[in-house]
Amino acid sequence: MDGERPTALHTGLSRTVELAELGPTLSAESETETKAPEIFRQLLQQAIRVSEQANAQALRMATDFAAVYAREQHLAKDFEAKLEELALLERQATRYAEDLATLLRLERERRLELERALGAEQNTNVELRRTGLQGVSHIVMAVSLKDMTTGQHLLRVRKYVESIAAKLGLPPATVEEFGYSSVLHDVGKIQTPDDILGAPHELSTDQFDVMKQHCIDGEAMLGDAKFFATGRAVAREHHERWDGTGYPDRKQGREISLAARIVAVADVYDALTSKRPYKEAWSAERGLASIEAGSGKQFDPGVVVAFVSLYREGAIEHIRTEVGDQP
After folding, report:
1. Which of 77, 189, 212, 279 is catalytic?
2. 82 in catalytic set
3. What is the pTM of this model?
4. How many distinct structural domains can be found in the chain?
5. Fewer CB near the terminus (10 Å): N or C of the chain?
């Protein structure tokens, strides 16, 4: 049959010989021999690619390691630098602590010295105050002996002044200072002639000029001791007027010390309501009316308000009763 290969060969000797089909086997071997170089080439290329990939990966790993190492070195240097900074700060802090401890020790020593000095000064001030108050008592006694109308007058004026100062809200220490300073307002009268002090009539112009000198004399007599600073102001200024028409310096308003402005009200009220050789005592209401009339002219309006309030409360009459109504 066309197209079919024979599978046996008839020899005519009653034998049949099978034919082996060699063609395809030989063809496969030949084809294998042809493909072997190509396979080898492909395997070689694949091995090269794998090697290149391995080399690339190794290079990347080496690069990454180098970068990590570099960062570690940089961090190590930074760490060392920070350690050095911390060590420096520690040394500085130690020095500062030592300096601070020295300063604190010196400050404690200085504080102790100041406390000792303050204690000594307080003791000195107490002694000076005691001496000053003794001086005030002696001066008051001398003035009272000189002018018999002065003794009770000074006590009433002092209590009026202290009450007014307290009413104005001044601190207790200031109230006390104004009080004992107020009794010095007429200390200069020690040098005023007796015939003028005891004149049974109103003074002439010349006599009044001599009388006015007691303000200046009083300031001078009190010297320059700190204890008598307020007393000197009171002695010189208690006849000044709020409107500037008083004496001896024609001061006005707040140019006049507050102590002197308070003493002016207390002194005038007590003089008006007390008997003098040249006049009879005014009634309390008449004296109060005179003080109110002088507000803003002779007297500090604020001081007048405080005095009037005390009068309405009965404090002024209580003082007059307590001290006595005699000169």
Report:
1. 189
2. no
3. 0.63
4. 2
5. N
